[in-house]
């Protein structure tokens, strides 16, 4: 299996850094190919701007969607963006690992998606019937993705009724709105809580939990998000009345 | 009223840029003081690293929370961070305006929160009784915040049962997990949909909607998020069984 491991932590000698080392080692030991995007080590630029798009941006006004699509088509995207797209094309599975900052990704990682997931590549792809290929379909369909998180919050506080919100709800923009949007099958996340207070015993347990999840990377059931074009949504892309009737909220988009 | 307007769009000649101009003009016309953080124009650096923290980071290993708290206390945070904290301290209300990218903030804006909302300033503040002041209490309590969004998605798709998820659910990490966490009262967001396809008539309507929201900035009811320390959550910060009984999900954190 070809695995791309994306890591976004400023300190390699952190809990996150140790888990990344464990994870990459585990995969290689069983014969997987691993490539890494260690965003801090790469000094990844997370800011979308006209410099990303070569001559496609030489109009008087930058419209990010259409300009990025043109640059993607003509091969004029920045070299750093093309290199990440090439890694994605190569990968069968992607690990997205980060410390939870303000209940989301560190900016350097958000900007990896902003810059790499351009129009024509990860969104805005048409199906033969004219509908847009997204949410379970698209350029990255067939690939798997898993979020690996370290979080300062105690586990109960990101549980179903915890004050911070349930972790899958907090990750919905990433897991559903980005990874599933682009077609990837998203496995349940692995969250290691109490990040700056982990004891030696807790570290052993966290590393074993990670190894176990990696062993079953190709076989675990993904989160059963609904497909956009599978019949559950109407022509306005609203969930049909008879499905999860009377309900709203993030939960209705999961089978 | 003192208003800080944070703007995160790479193109000032965009729908978002025009609305920003309208909004700032509206506020000044009625006598408000406005300061701006135009993040692209400022070339804001969104990446947290050891350079943010002066001598506080001169240990062998960067622990972001505690290091940022030390640098905040000793006044050693980077000058760009301190300048934004000073604007926040000055403001009675904050407008957070951005184009919705991958159902969240552009990286340059996420990194404004990552770098400016440091420990000791926006989180990790203790109350006299030893509980942590957050979710409705904290350094920024008494201030108001409002998100102003432009989004490519059609309105129905970010409605209650739309395929992308309801906009307030998508914004939960920002509105609840960041702004309310730090104590700010969060007004309902203003979302302008179909961003790259807005007609002249639709622009007039969008600008008027924005002006109306700004006229009532100091009087509108905020989103009634629950207070962490108001009695609704138990000592593990889990919502008490008798409130929203049997339910989970983002909605249970709103009265």
Please describe what this structure looks like.
- 2 copies of one chain form a homodimer.
- Chain A has 255 residues and is of the alpha/beta class.
- Chain A folds into 2 domains: 2-223, 3-Layer(aba) Sandwich (Rossmann fold), CATH 3.40.50.360; 224-255, no CATH class.
- Helices cover 30% and strands 13% of the residues of chain A.
- Chain A is built from 7 helices and 5 strands.
- A 5-stranded parallel sheet of chain A has the order 2-1-3-4-5, with helices on both faces.
- In chain A, strand 1 (2-7), helix 1 and strand 2 (33-38) form a beta-alpha-beta unit.
- In chain A, helix 1 (15-29) packs parallel to helix 7 (200-215).
- The longest helix of chain A is centred in the last third of the chain and has 16 residues, at 200-215.
- Chain A is globular, with a radius of gyration of 19 Å.
- In chain A, 50% of the residues are buried.
- Chains A and B meet through helix 2, helix 4 and helix 6 of A and helix 2, helix 4 and helix 6 of B.
- Chains A, B: It comes from Amycolatopsis alba DSM 44262.
- Chains A, B: Residues 1-213 form the Flavodoxin-like fold domain.
- Chains A, B: One of its GO terms (cellular component) is cytosol.
Record the SSE blueprint.
Two copies of one chain form a homodimer.
Chain A: E1 2-7, H1 15-29, E2 33-38, H2 64-74, H3 79-90, E3 93-99, H4 107-116, E4 144-150, H5 167-170, H6 172-180, E5 185-192, H7 200-215
Parallel strand pairs in A: 1-2, 1-3, 3-4, 4-5
Helix pairs in contact in A: 1-7
């Amino acid at each position: 299996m070809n695995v791309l491991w994306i890591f976004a932590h400023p300190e390699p000698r952190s809990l996150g850094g140790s888990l990344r080392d464990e994870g990459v080692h585990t995969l290689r030991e069983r014969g997987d190919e691993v490539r890494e995007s260690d965003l801090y080590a790469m000094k990844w630029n997370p800011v979308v701007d006209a410099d990303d798009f070569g001559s496609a941006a030489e109009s008087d006004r930058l419209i990010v969607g259409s300009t990025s699509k043109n640059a993607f088509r003509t091969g004029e995207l920045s070299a750093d963006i093309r290199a990440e797209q090439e890694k994605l094309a190569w990968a069968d599975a992607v690990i997205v690992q980060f410390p939870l900052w303000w209940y989301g990704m560190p900016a350097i990682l958000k900007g990896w998606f902003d810059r790499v997931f351009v129009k024509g590549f990860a969104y805005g792809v048409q199906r033969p019937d004219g509908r847009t290929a997204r949410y379970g379909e698209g350029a990255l369909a067939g690939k798997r993705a898993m979020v690996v998180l370290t979080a300062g919050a105690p586990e109960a506080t990101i549980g179903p009724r915890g004050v911070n919100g349930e972790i899958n709800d907090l990750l919905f923009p990433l897991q559903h709105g980005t990874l599933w949007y682009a077609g990837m099958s998203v496995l349940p996340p692995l969250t290691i809580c109490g990040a700056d207070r982990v004891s030696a015993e807790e570290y052993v347990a966290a590393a074993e939990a990670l190894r176990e999840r990696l062993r079953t990377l190709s076989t675990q059931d993904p989160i059963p998000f609904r497909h956009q074009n599978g019949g559950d949504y109407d022509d306005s892309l609203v969930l049909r009345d008879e499905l999860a009737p009377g309900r709203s909220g993030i939960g209705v988009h999961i089978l």
